Amino acid sequence: MIGGIEAGGTKFVLAVGPTPTGIAARHVIPTRTPAETLAEAMEWFAGQASIEALGIASFGPVDLDLASPTWGHITRTPKPGWSDCDLAGHFARGLGVPVGFDTDVNGAAIAEAAHGAGRGVSSLAYVTVGTGIGGGLVLNGQPVHGAAHPEMGHVFVRRAVDDTDFAGHCPIHGDCLEGLASGPAIIARWGQLLSHLPPDHPAHERIAGYLAQLCYSLFAMTAAEVVVLGGGVTKAPGLLDRVREGAGALSNDYLPGGARHRIEAPGLGENSGLTGALMLAEAARAARS
Length: 289
Hints:
Layout: E1 2-7, E2 11-17, E3 25-30, H1 34-46, E4 54-58, H2 87-95, E5 99-103, H3 104-115, E6 123-129, E7 133-139, E8 142-143, H4 177-181, H5 183-190, H6 202-222, E9 226-230, H7 239-251, E10 262-264, H8 272-288
Helix pairs in contact: 1-2, 3-8, 6-7
């Protein structure tokens, strides 16, 4: 058996199973303080069948540099109390098993590439649009890491000419993509979730336009074949179709990848991140052996 944790800022989703797609048991706990949350997670795993490895797909920012003394830590995060939390080390010591570790969106990306909307392609980007906006990129089965991990939500998009009365909601950048199109930004601007606004409300076209810019940019800069859009905001009726239409208009039939570029909903539904965490566990187990 292997174990997985999708560690989010709102909840931790825990699972064990024989394979990444064979979840035998799962459990959800609210994200509170590190001491409370990690203790409850450890207690749940202790009550399950013994596992040989654990994978963690975590909210960030996180340290993914294997040579770093703070590998496996959550670094400087706005989530109160979680900065400098040694997430991977806590479970490695407590469970005595190898631990695989990556961002939550990289976990979702590798899962969608292997078992979801990206099956059969060599390149995929996964973007979640919810409390924040984050993204991961997978090329030939491997998540892309560099100096750190991608921060796709903090890119700047071209604002519509009539969109000048909202400063943006990102505490760091103001009107970056996350500051314009995340769930909290939508609520700050229009007072409701996107899915609760009337179908003819201008927010739908506005948010779709900004997400279309990201998708087009990913196609143009990375040549990714598939962009998977997940997260609560993307569940608004008709949003994905609007994003597809907007990205196509931006391309103007220029991109050489043509119809190979696709924008899809997660093929694994709500299990993208958790399946990715279990894949990280599988890789950690294989590396030890």
